């Protein structure tokens, strides 16, 4: 279905310089994507960590109350903490989690959609208490002569969703938190439906419920309501762990096409597709029973967090989907497919 680009991966940590002294880039992944003024523009999630690393300690960067970057330190053999996952440390009694890296969004641009120039500085970075552990996983939606960027805001308060607006990707306005913890994977539709803005989002339940895709509507992109369940995973198989939104949906003559991610119970992430009604995006017309894209290449099955393909952005031109995706929480790669081929799986046409 999707053909990997022969130059993959397109952007790796080695190609991106740190945003500050004393830090190293360990991940460039999960970009939002848009066509803007004749270029392909990505907002890349760049994960950084301190370079001075005593192996007896785990260092967790965060933004303190004074707006400065600080380090939370834990002895690796501290019996009160679980340090077995390279991504975070967890306090066993309270359940409090600290990330071992901090992410920001970095702008990357390309004339051909393959060879990218990455800025040397952050485009959007942690700036308040709700983003103290970083900002992650941008999705870009073009709406009404502007661009709206929703992103994951991470802090000790939980995982929330923030929103920003730009007309030119030079000047930026923050619009605040639009979904409180715990919620992520927001994908805003590129046009109003029945006079309202629409998005997919993914609540993260506690003791009850599943990690499923929901829909919501809004009069102003800030206040969201009319929440309805859209898509659940299955009891077993490739989507038994969780499902979540991917890139913003694509309008087609058959309905709204979404490429979404799903994980099994072993945390292997694949991509699937579903088609929803034009008039009611909470109504799913069809979905793929099997994944349309799975981790197979070495840069997808190895890396920082292996066996992951994860998309936040794609572009569509001349009937061809260009899917920009994160590979193993490490690098950015590209896969391409005709939109008609994806639709044929859902419509039988």
Summarize the structure.
With 349 residues, the protein is mostly beta strands. The chain has a single domain (3-347), classed as Tachylectin-2, Chain A (5 Propeller), CATH 2.115.10.20. It is 4% helix and 50% strand.
Q: Which CATH architecture would you pick?
A: 5 Propeller
Compressed to H and E, one letter per element, the order equals EEEEEEEEEEEEEEEEEEEEEEEHEEEH
**Ranges with pLDDT <50 over ≥5 residues?**
none
Strand-pairing-aware structural class: mainly beta
- Main sheet: strands, sense, barrel: 5 strands, antiparallel
Radius of gyration: 19 Å
Number of domains: 1
Helix content: under 10%
Mean pLDDT: 96
> What is the overall number of helices?
2
Which descriptor suits the 3D outline? globular
Tell me the β content: over 45%
Count of β-strands: 26
Give the terminus-to-terminus CA distance: 15 Å
Give me the CATH superfamily: Glycosyl hydrolase domain, family 43
CATH topology: Tachylectin-2, Chain A
What is the CATH class? Mainly Beta
